[in-house]
């Protein structure tokens, strides 16, 4: 039976430690880090993420401003808002909640964010830095996945790691971070042939496909560490669930994360860490 790695527990620990650093930052720089979150529309998932971010900021002592706009906002108006936030010296970190409405080009918006305030690590400048091994802001979910593996004491070096999913937000960067830690990494996706054959060789299996309960026990190696990045609705129960069939896979894996309470809290915690990192970098510029 697998040990459940609690993202909730690690997030709490990290948030407590971060909270202790805020008074020192205030004393040293005269203000606390400030995260600006831009939310367009009223997508339930996005609202829930943004609430989690606000709660996290309050717990740690980070200033948080959420700017909410309707889905009818034009691309030009949104670019104007990003420009204002870029120019605002009291804002250290900018997050534009994705997905954006279809009439807005997300790439254009991300490209407009000042790379020094790009708390998600999504700007092409920061993406390039990640792949060139330059010091940079790491995307929050991949950073959280690695933190969970480390917290559980799972050896990464030399291990077979398999990532299911090749998105720019999770699959690709998590694969790069695993490679940086000397894992042998395979990236699988919707066109992969013999998926089961590949996933069952993985000592570390990262599920980031976005399909409810997609990873079944026969896809998992005995004793593997399984990290579930999925956030889905179970089509039968309507409840939140991951990409991994937790109930059945936990009997085969040695470590596993749950949804909710696994990667999710770590994503937000890494966002808080990144906000502090952006702040310090800007203050010391
Ligand atoms: N939507 C879902 N996850 C994320 C994230 O990590 N960052 C942003 N900006 N939007 C998201």
Keywords:
285 residues; alpha/beta; 3-stranded parallel beta sheet; 10 helices; 42% helix; 16% strand; globular; binds guanine
Distance between the termini: 50 Å
* H-E string: EHEHEHEHHHEHEHEEEEHEH
Strand element count: 11
Query: What is the strand arrangement across the widest sheet?
Result: 1-11-8-7-5-6
Give the low-pLDDT segments.
Answer: none
Small molecules held by this entry: guanine
| Helical segment count | 10
The coarse silhouette is globular
Largest sheet: 6 strands, parallel
By secondary-structure content and strand pairing, the structural class works out as alpha/beta
Portion in strands: 15-25%
Q: What is the average per-residue confidence, as pLDDT, rounded to a whole number?
A: 97
Q: Cα-atom Rg, whole angstroms?
A: 19 Å
Helix percentage: 40-55%
